[in-house]
Amino acid sequence: MNSGDAEAAAASKKARCKKEKKKKRKDDCGAAEASAADEEIVHDKKRKKQLQQKKNGDDVAVPNRKTTLAGQIARAATVFRIDEVVVFDSNSSVENSGDDVESGARFLVRILQYLETPQYLRRRLFPMHNNLKFVGLLPPLDAPHHLRKHEWSEFREGVTLDGDRSMGTFVDVGLSKNVLVEQMLEPGKRVTIAMGTNRDITTACKRKIVSPSSPRDEMELYWGYKVRYASNLGGVFSDSPYKEGYDYIIGTSEHGKIISSSELILPSFRKHFSSLSNTSKTPLGELDSKCGNSCKLNN
Fold first, then answer.
1. What are 179's strand-pairing partners?
2. Packing angle of the helix pair 63-79, 104-116 (nearest 10 deg)
C-alpha cells in the first residue's frame, strides 16, 4: 500500500468514527428526551389525581398533610391547656373501607390520642397502624406529662403490665424500673401514678393510682387533653362527660360576622368551656338547636 492509499484509509476511518460519535450523541439525546417525557407524564397523572381529590371535597387528601394538620391541632390544644377535644363526624354515614383506612374524624381522633400520649407509652398502647405512618415527622408536644427517663415528677403516666400479681400490679412509668401498685389491674390500661418525692422505685415502695385530674387539682399542672369522638353534632352535647354539661358555648361560622376580642364579653362560667369550629356543612341553626340557651352564636 502506497502512502496515498494509507492517507485515504486513515481519512475514511476518521470520518467513520466521527459519524458513529454523532449517531451516539443523537441516541443519548433521544433517550434523555424520552425520560423527561415519561417524568412529565407521571407528574401530570399525580397532578390530575390531586385535582380530582380536591374536586371530591378532600381538602387534606395527602396522608402526611392530614397528619401535619392533626399535629397542629394537638399543639394548639397543649399550648392553650385544653382539657377536652371533641371530634364530631359530619359524615358518619361513610363507612371505613378497612382496618387500616379510617374516616376523617376517626383518623383525627387516633392521631390526637397518639400525640397526647407520653412517648414511652406509645409502643404499648398503640399497635402499628397505617394512619400512624407519618407521625414520626411531627415535632414533640413537650407537654408537662411527657417526661424523660431522667426526669422526676410527683406524677407520671403509666401503663399496667402483665405478670406476677402476688404483690400487686407492675406499671411502666418510663423509668429505669417498673413501679408497683397495690391494685390488681388488667394489663394494657393507662393510669396516673402518684410518685411523690421518694425516689425509691424498688418494690419496697408501693405507689398509688390517682385520678388523671390530680396533677391539675393538687399542683396546677396541665396534664394533657382527653379526646372524644361524637358521631354527630348532637353527641357533642348529649354525651358530655360533665354532669351539668357545658355552661357556655361559642359557635363560629365561616358565614358569620367578624368581631374583635373587645366586643366579645364572656360571662362567668364554670370549668367547662367549649369552642366549636363550624363550616357550611353544619348550619348555625342546627348548632343552636343542639346546644340550647347556653350557646353564643356569631352569626
1. 171
2. 50
Contact indicator for 169, 161 with CB cutoff of 8 Å:
yes
> Is 291 within 8 Å of 237 (Cβ atoms)?
yes
Backbone angles phi, psi at 121, to 5 degrees: -105, -15
**Segment 206-234, tens digit of pLDDT:** 999 999 999 999 999 999 999 999 888 88
Residues 6+ apart with CB under 8 A from 194: 154, 155, 207, 208, 209, 210, 214
Q: Are residues 215 and 67 in the same domain?
A: no
The answer to whether residues 274 and 137 belong to one domain is yes
Which set of grid coordinates corresponds to residue 170?
407492675
In terms of pLDDT, which residue wins out, 104 or 54? 104
What would the pLDDT profile of 102-142 be if each residue is shown by its tens digit? 768 899 999 999 999 999 999 999 999 988 989 998 999 99
What DSSP assignment string belongs to 269-281? --S--EEEEE-TT
Residue range(s) defining the domain that contains residue 122: 63-142+223-297
Q: How far is CA 63 from the centre of its chain?
A: 11
Q: Read off φ and ψ for residue 268, nearest 5 degrees.
A: -65, 140
CATH of the domain at 207: 2.40.50.140
How far is the C-alpha of 236 from the C-alpha of 214, rounded, in Å?
A: 25
